[in-house]
Amino acid sequence: MKDYQKYILITGGAGFIGSHVVRLFVNKYPGYLIYNLDKLTYAGNLANLRDIEAKPNYRFIKADIVDGEYMVKLFAEHRFDAVIHLAAESHVDRSIASPMEFIMANIVGTVNLLNTAKFSWQDSFTEKLFYHISTDEVYGSLGEEGFFTEETPYDPHSPYSASKASSDHLVRAYHDTYGLPVLISNCSNNYGPNQFPEKLIPLFINNIHHSKPLPVYGKGENVRDWLYVIDHAQAIDTIFHKGLVGETYNIGGNNEWKNIDLIKVICEVMDDKLGRPQGTSEKLITYVKDRPGHDLRYAIDSGKLQRELGWTPSLQFEEGIRITVDWYLNNQQWLDEVTSGDYLKYYEEMYLKR
Ligand code: NAD
Ligand code: DAU
Prior knowledge:
There is one protein chain. This protein is of the alpha/beta class. The chain has a domain at 6-195 and 227-254 and 296-316: NAD(P)-binding Rossmann-like Domain (Rossmann fold). The protein has helices at 16-28, 68-77, 92-97, 99-120, 159-178, 200-209, 229-242, 259-274, 303-309, 317-330, 332-339, 342-352; strands spanning 6-11, 32-38, 58-62, 82-85, 129-135, 182-187, 189-191, 214-217, 223-228, 248-251, 256-258, 285-288. The chain has a seven-stranded parallel sheet, with helices on both faces. The chain is globular, with a radius of gyration of 20 Å. The mean pLDDT is 96. Residues 90-92, 135-137, 188-189, 199-200, 203, 215-217, 222, 224, 259, 291, 298 line the site of 2'deoxy-thymidine-5'-diphospho-alpha-D-glucose. 2'deoxy-thymidine-5'-diphospho-alpha-D-glucose binds next to helix 6 and strand 8.
């Protein structure tokens, strides 16, 4: 086999953000060999990577990070220089319905990877890197004012965010206790192509397209800071190459929206794209029972990443949301495939009994 400059294991690469990270690394760095390891849960979809799957510097491995024995074997067979760890259960509502799956994938899975990296790299940690991808939800909820910084104390409220917080603590513990070279980044809400339509933006685009109700939790007053997924992938590239080992970097869009205002923008764009009279989609808005433990506001201060590593988001939200709507409208087959089967059962459980 040809010698590559770096051998990188990306976990969760068939998911939403992971697939954009894999694509960026495969295309931008032909000198790196990129291994995408994914269990292919309901959220993992190899169709996300069809355009790069035949590239010589790409390999796919179907595996579960919870399987510690397999991980050790895999690391013995390949000389990975770095891990970029995205594999996780990622949807808050599912974590409320089945917390144990989140404990297994997000906590046990991360510890397995940490143990395997520590064991396999024990001769020398030089030039090795374990980069853990996390979320702003670990910081809890903000009031009307202020921002999450890297110093904000952890205060997670959902089983999802608690499992991610736990994994972040374990990653830091492996750095502080064993000297494992680690990096962590905590990002705000992503949107863009290939997001599973259980998350707010693709769910609402899909529902509007099919004239189905738009289930707004509570009063729709919760605030999220939205970042285009390719900007997140570029931030991950920047942090991977320039980040200081042991450090944490916050990533955000500086783009706060109250849910109900964001939903109205989606309705307006959809009416426009579908050639329906303005106001048609807004009539689908239906207020439903709030998410338990629903965090009021997330807002990220990404000043450290911008000042120290020079990353800035590239896309304005108005443009990003139009590109996103176009992508879902032009990729109906992708949507049909992921919304069939298991997802339909989930949708019924989650909303029709609400
Ligand atoms: P996703 O649910 O779309 O994808 C997760 C991927 O992980 C899927 O391909 C799934 O098959 C895989 N996976 C799950 N369990 C696995 C296991 N045990 N072994 C191997 N693979 C497994 O998630 P996403 O939205 O792309 O999020 C990716 C990462 O980024 C997660 O760690 C998430 O916590 C974090 N994050 C997400 C957001 C967001 O807005 N979506 C924001 C900040 C951080
Ligand atoms: O902040 C980063 C996090 O963003 C990531 O770590 C998570 O993986 C990701 O899922 C996302 O979490 P949220 O819970 O913020 O995203 P979600 O799309 O589920 O919801 C966004 C907001 O919209 C939230 O306030 C809940 C609300 N909502 C969501 C759905 C699915 C509704 O009102 N109705 C809905 O049907």
